[in-house]
Each structure stands twice: as structure tokens, then as C-alpha cells.
Amino acid sequence: MATVKKRAKAALELCGGADKDYTDQIVKVAKALLKMNNVLILSHRSPDGDTLGCAYALCRGMRSLGKKAAVKCADEIPGKYSFMYEGMEQQTFEPEHFVTVDIAGAHLLGSIADEYEKKIDVCIDHHFRNSIEAPVKLVDTDASATAELIWLILNAMGVKMDKEMASCLFAAISTDTGCFKYSNVKPRTHLIAVELMKYGVDCAGINFKLIDEVSQAQLELKKQALSTLEYFCNNQCAIVTVTSEMIQQTGASPEDLDGISNIPRSISGVECGITMRQINDGWKISVRSSEKVNASDLCGKFGGGGHKAAAGCKFSESYEETKKQLVDAVSEILK
Ligand SMILES: [Mn+2]
Question: CA-CA distances (angstroms) from residue 274 to 21, 66, 88, 104, 161?
Fold first, then answer.
């Protein structure tokens, strides 16, 4: 097993230096995974490019070592991610081990939480306040995407990278960095991307599909949502609202909502952009923020969480009450 450590070190050196403790953490996860067979890899509900890219890259990696592995997600996987599992065979097996990727808390497993939350063997993530209980856990909040960690782990495991795995990981990193433009991008992020590109990843194609491409329904929804734009806190806070009626009327799917939450924050002078989306029992809030506002702290006040620059929470109050509480909290932070 000394080779696991050697490979982990080599991978860490490739992307900017190996700290001893950190190498040991990667080694621990890699060794745990190498011992497992019949592995079910779990993605979070409303799956995004990171959770899915990690899951399919790891699944492909495990299979390349002759293991049985599959991916499970509570919600339907949007069609734009189909390249991640293209060509993979259906494997039937009784899962013995369970791995979560990019999941901050068991409740984010969605409707399959009850079934799996007590069974998780390995948790790999990059969110603040990760609350998953697992004997083997690697949570690195410095990683731009969980995929950076999966890349390190696959290397430590001695998995022979291929174009498919590299494409999954590239898509994951691109998703979580907004195409390499958010403040979470570190030298390591680019260095790993360089390694992935060596396998012939269609970077432009993936970026177009995941970042730029919009459906007509999505654009129509954006149009309607933008008409609700309001400013608060001396124009430093902007709020956009998406009602159930808009979603129904435009025929937009959950994935069509993706691009909207970035809009309010993109307005010049806005430090905190909020998107309020109507859900069954209230409002789902997405926050995007500048350095001046810690989105994770803001959402934490209301029982949510996430990252410094992007976080979310939920309210069961009325529209006006929800908005008031949010604006009050933001103005407190900006004071
Ligand atoms: Mn992520």
C-alpha cells in the first residue's frame, strides 16, 4: 500500500505541493475505496455538474479496477449531463458500500435520505459545515469543486484516467467555478484542468452545454423573472423572484432555473444578489455575493448554508415577510 501514498504525493505535487497531513487524508480515502466492492455512489438532490461529474468519474474509476459500482440520485438527471454516463453498462448488484460526493448533509440526499443516511462509508465533499456522518470523511473547503478531490483520489488509487473520466471531472470543475471565473479558483484548479485536458476533453463543447446553452423556456423564464427585479440597501442588494406561475406558464424545468440565480449579483454595485423561488410551502432562496457579504453566514442565519460566495436557504413565511427578513439581514451585514 506504500504505492498509494507515492501516487497521492505525485498527484499532489502535480497540482501544487503535498502537505503531509493532506496526503495522509487522500491516502486514507483511496485505501478505503480500494478495499470496497459493490459500491453505490450517491449524488445530491437537484443534481449539478459537480455531484454528477464526481459520481460518474468515481464510478468509472472503480469499474476500471474491476469493481462493481453504480450512481444513484433521488432526482432525475438533466439531459445535458448524459455524456457523463454514455456507454456505461447497467450493472446489477447488491450494494455493500455507500459513498457520497459533493453532499453537505444527509438531507440533501433528498427522497433517498432515509434509506442511506445511516449507511454512508465514505464522504467526499468541499462544503462548509458538512454534517454527514461517515467513518471515512474528506472535506476540503479549499477545493473549488469536489471533483478536485476525486481527481486526487483516483490518482492515489492508481486508476488509469481516460477521456470519459476526465470529461466528467472537467465538467464538474467548470460547473462549480462558473467556467473558471469564481473566486474559488486556485492554481490547483487550473493545474488539474491542465491534466484533464491531456485526455482530449472537449472543453469548449462541455462549457457551451453546461454554461452557455439555454432553452427557449429558460430564456422566457429569465425574461419574466427579470421583470420582478428590485433593489434594496442602497442598491447593494438585488432580488429577483420566480413564482410557480412563471414556471408553469413557461414550461420551464428545474434545470432551466439554473442560470437565473447569478443575474442579480452580476449587476454593477450589487454586493448581494438574491433569487427567491416559490416552492410548495414557501420560498427557496439562492444567494450570490461579493467579498463584502458571506453568503454562507447569511443563509446560515435561516437554517441554510453553502459557500462564501454562493449559498441557499428556505423560508415558509409569506413573500413579503421572507423578503423583509432577508433584506434586514443583508443590511445588517453591509452596515
Ligand atoms: Mn460542488
Answer: 38, 46, 39, 21, 39
Q: How many CA atoms are closer than 13 Å to the CA of 40, on its beta-carbon side?
A: 18
Q: Could you confirm whether domain 216-334 is CATH 3.10.310.30?
A: yes
Q: Cα(50) to centroid of ligand 1, in Å? A: 5
Rounded distance from Cα 305 to ligand 1 centre (Å): 13
For residue range 59-106, list pLDDT tens digits in order: 999 999 999 999 999 999 999 999 999 999 999 999 999 999 999 999
Cell triple for residue 301?
A: 442565519
**Segment 137-147, tens digit of pLDDT:** 999 999 999 99
Domains of the chain, by residue range, sit at 2-211, 216-334
> How close is the Cα of 321 to the center of ligand 1, in Å?
30
Residues with CB under 5 A from ligand 1 (ion): 50, 102, 146, 176
**Domain 2-211 architecture:** Alpha-Beta Complex (3.90)
**Facing residues of 292 across strands?**
none
